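Hello everyone,

My group is preparing for a crystallization screen and wants a predicted model to guide construct design. The compound we'll soak is thiamine diphosphate. Before spending weeks at the bench, it would help to have a computed complex in hand. I've included the protein sequence and the ligand's SMILES below. Output in structure-token form would be ideal because that's what our pipeline reads.
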Amino acid sequence: MASSAPRKRAAPVKTEVDATRATDLYRTVARIRAAELVLQRHITEHGFGGFWHPGLGQEGVQAGAVAALRTDDYMFIAHRGLGYALAKGMSLESLFGDLFARTVGSTGGKGGGTVHFVDPERGVLGQGGAIGSSFVLGAGAAISGQMLGTDRVCAIFFGDGASSRGTWHESALQASVWKLPIVWICENNGWAVSARISEQSPTENIADRASAYGVPGVIVDGQDAIAVFDAVTEAVDRARAGHGPTLIEAKTMRIRGHYEGDRQKYRDDLLVGDEIPRDPLGILREHVPASVADQLDDDARHEAESVLATVLEAPRADPSIIYKDVWS
Amino acid sequence: MASSAPRKRAAPVKTEVDATRATDLYRTVARIRAAELVLQRHITEHGFGGFWHPGLGQEGVQAGAVAALRTDDYMFIAHRGLGYALAKGMSLESLFGDLFARTVGSTGGKGGGTVHFVDPERGVLGQGGAIGSSFVLGAGAAISGQMLGTDRVCAIFFGDGASSRGTWHESALQASVWKLPIVWICENNGWAVSARISEQSPTENIADRASAYGVPGVIVDGQDAIAVFDAVTEAVDRARAGHGPTLIEAKTMRIRGHYEGDRQKYRDDLLVGDEIPRDPLGILREHVPASVADQLDDDARHEAESVLATVLEAPRADPSIIYKDVWS
Amino acid sequence: MTEQRTQESPGDGVSTINYALAINHAMAEEMRRDSRVWILGQDVGRMGGVFGVTRGLLDEFGPLRVRDTAINETFIVGAAAGAAMTGTIPIAELQFADFMLIAGDEIFGKLAKWRYMHGGKLSLPAVVRVPTGLLGGVGAEHSQSLEVLGMHFPGVKVVLPSTPADAKGLLKSAIRDPNPVLFFEHKGLYRVKGEVPDDPEFLVPFGVAAVRRRGDALTVIATGMMVDRTLAAAEVLAREGHEVEVIDPRTLVPLDMDTILESVQRTGRAMIVHEAVRTAGAGAEIASRIHEELFFALDAPVWRLGASDTPIPQDPELEQLCIPQVPGIAEAMRGLIAL
Amino acid sequence: MTEQRTQESPGDGVSTINYALAINHAMAEEMRRDSRVWILGQDVGRMGGVFGVTRGLLDEFGPLRVRDTAINETFIVGAAAGAAMTGTIPIAELQFADFMLIAGDEIFGKLAKWRYMHGGKLSLPAVVRVPTGLLGGVGAEHSQSLEVLGMHFPGVKVVLPSTPADAKGLLKSAIRDPNPVLFFEHKGLYRVKGEVPDDPEFLVPFGVAAVRRRGDALTVIATGMMVDRTLAAAEVLAREGHEVEVIDPRTLVPLDMDTILESVQRTGRAMIVHEAVRTAGAGAEIASRIHEELFFALDAPVWRLGASDTPIPQDPELEQLCIPQVPGIAEAMRGLIAL
Ligand SMILES: Cc1ncc(C[n+]2csc(CCOP(=O)(O)OP(=O)(O)O)c2C)c(N)n1
Ligand SMILES: Cc1ncc(C[n+]2csc(CCOP(=O)(O)OP(=O)(O)O)c2C)c(N)n1
Ligand SMILES: [Mg+2]
Ligand SMILES: [Mg+2]
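Reply:
Good plan to model first. Here are the tokens for the complex, ready for your pipeline.
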């Protein structure tokens, strides 16, 4: 039944890098990074209601993958950070607004902690609080896309840990048979809370599972935003052309705790001072003039700081919001 | 992490067939066949409360696989027929007793239709009414076996249809990582009610999925009880030696309806007069003297008829049984 | 909560068809009306459903709108939720209501909550059709009545038709409702016939109970398969001189407490009869609300009849002993009236 | 149903420890006593659990008895059921009670039914530990109180400890119980301290409610996190001259109706307070039973307080507005006493 033979490959050989593309990616990664760092500092200094799952160091996957999508493509995000949503075009104000439960948040003030950023106009459809829900939800979105006569693709982000859930299997079989326009993007950061993926997966790579579903399995360096962009672009093209889903595994790493504040006693590979090995920003700098990159860093830092300040002053929702939106 | 490289192979090359083994298998297949036919006739003539899922034509898998198990090995059966339970040593009376809701049934009279045959002494632990439950239950039994210091193996029978459930994925990953003593035996009869497996599976074989779990995937001719016995024996040895699970796919076919009475309008491969292509009895006859085989056929028919007659006369449970055994 | 208040409006034509066909017609009509409506589930296509409810729909609407899935209940409901969020209107069929337990997170964690969690930015107009109750010999894992779950998780509507006309009219309302709906079709009613309006605009609104019989001695609220049994018991009581009022709420979420309370106010006595396990069933909620609202007007406590505190045995004769029967219902009516 | 009727028997020593540590001690003691007892769940080993409840157990009992699973709730509970059937005693930890919805078939289709379905030939002595209720900012899919589900599916016991001593004594009883037990630990109580007997034979029996405060004006039945809030509200009422009796049932299955009915018979008024959604929650069942048994002795209807008919918002300040608070409970007490 499978349309194309399963295959696996390393990151595509880079021929020439589009300078505008590299600059755009740099800007996105820098904006995510700045938002991550500003949040980290705020939470450390002032505490936080709820839980925040930092995405520090994983910005390359998020920026690279989302850049390969159209604005109207569907996307189910994972819980690690806000990079996916920011890259897809949501304003930082709406994301911080959710984190601090302000009416400017995308959920209108119901937020707090790692929340359920949403923006249907930009295809951002949320993340499952129960990890792994997105596999089935995303398949449904892909079906709608087809049925409504669009050529929209659905990108589903998930962690290595989430790949163990049965929802993956049920969706992957059905999506493959139906050739749904899906791109599965696994951010393999090596950990699921305290569980090393190497102790949870019988195969070395998550992408090794692709052949069971008759879909291509692709492994890519998640720190290299351009490589991620290229791999996802190919998978998106394939999906849009009606050839079905692709499983992409981006190798990355979890720099900080599972949630901000996690003391990570279980971990023996802690990094000194949050140094980010193979920092996606550093890798992108190879293709971006230093002065441009410096300026983008500054802009991003400025944006993150000023948006945080604005949002912290923004109003919270009226308590009656708890009764709102149960029903259409 | 996987201990041994995934592999796949056709039925093992038969060197010499143990004559006693062949005769024993013939006896088992003949007994299952006779029970199947006697039930089929009874249901056609007299109707039946509940649903019966005939296993006609699949006796070779059931007999061959169970013969490779020790009496104290655990076993989760599938819903298709009673062959598994009969082969494991349960009396035909206790099985018919369940089907006709008599106190002689293994469930003491709660039965009726395709029921939940059980005999913990002989390792028969039931079948999930929700197809695919046995993957997770069976993993638990395998863990108990290990923890109690036994070398018991757990065999889990399931259909091609059941292989789509998420319970498979969750169990297969965890069982592989923990090297649980499990043998998964897929009776691929080509159909899940009205669904052709060839339209439901992106890979040609269910066994093709084994590599995703770092376990051996073996394909065997399910009509050939000896081939099944050999394949399962190897997998059982592997499991007992602590090397983890094996996925065996036995190719077989569903001769009759999903349930007895199913008119199968959806089917275009119906057989004339229930002819059983590659009848497991016929294949076994190559290794059993005709006179012996004839006698075993007679004995089996006689057993099935007389047990049915006895069971139909046996008492039903007192209605108060509905309140029994909710709690220990 | 915006309710559809469209009146029941039978057209000229009425056909005498069974409950299964009434459901089939509801789907066919809505699929003709709105190309966004589609179906997924096991055996719904080529076979027309294990209970024959989707027969002919594959032929009329094709394989993209009538999709045969693998055995993947989690997928069926989860994909329906994802599709509903993105502009189509899926009707998911589970082969047995029991399998809601396999898709529990998708029903109660996603369909019921995702609109709320996302500040109203998503809508989830999905229908999940679940064949409920006893069928005869299908055992503990295929016979449950789980409608009360839908009452405890805010965000899903809960429908239990007891007649062919209601089955059609309520399903059409369910498909048009912008909220997720759990639609409990009773397996034992599929072959029951009744008059059903042909009008493709015939809708039965949610939140409007049907008074199946008028009476002054006692109000009985019955659902699903228990409606007919309660009416039969009411006949017995009528011959004994007691007129029992029988109310079929038809939807549990929303629940038409107005009709129930008005009736109990008049009769002073109430009883709930359902096929679900009595303990913590819908009857507990309805009884509690009646007590809360009408305590001082009641002549006796509200009683509840439901299934025994046991799983359902596999044997088709034994299983009936677990749920209310006509004589038992009549006996309870007598007891409550005498109290 | 055979109940463990062992008396509470504190030994000489008593330690002041928190609820999480009390649960930890219960597991450690039972694992020392019986080598068949083992643990599985996510992060229960190396990390000692996301709430720190299993800390130290991997070191003491090794990786075969304290098993870190992948993210596979269906597996966790299903494997526990299979293991329980075959002679070991698993303690399964789900990280959030909400994930019962992912393992619904394994809990309610297998653990609850498989003994019955198989004519008593199997036993399923598994414990499923589920952190329940609000934690602060974990949102709609991680904050639910789902204990009523266990009441509607016959075959599982349901435990909700509200103090460290009960947490320890009830969990030890749960592990020794030959039936499957759903053990609801409140996430908001983990850090609350209390006196806990050291005696490894200290057990709290199932089906015996604890009367937390004596009174004659009103009986309030409260569970889990609501026990302390109800006691605080009772203090307020006491200052206003009304003595409220507060009963903590501790187990919902079995439920100690004797203690509840004896109390309500005396006070003539009753109210139930729980954190679960009010509609179709445990309160509906308890209220219905009180009405059924004591209708003519009651001075007023039984009232229920519970969570709003909404999902839980993600924001930690908003979430508290959805569940009963001390002032609201006190207000309801006043209202009911005045009725
Ligand atoms: C079904 C489910 N089980 C458990 C959890 C708790 N949990 C939240 S994140 C997480 C680990 C996820 O690991 P992974 O998918 O690798 O993502 P990462 O955190 O590494 O980005 C767990 C166990 C959950 N949210 N949902
Ligand atoms: C979870 C679940 N979904 C659906 C069903 C209804 N059902 C019973 S058997 C069956 C088909 C099973 O196919 P397969 O596993 O191939 O076994 P076969 O009937 O071919 O022996 C289905 C869909 C069920 N029992 N459980
Ligand atoms: Mg990870
Ligand atoms: Mg099959």
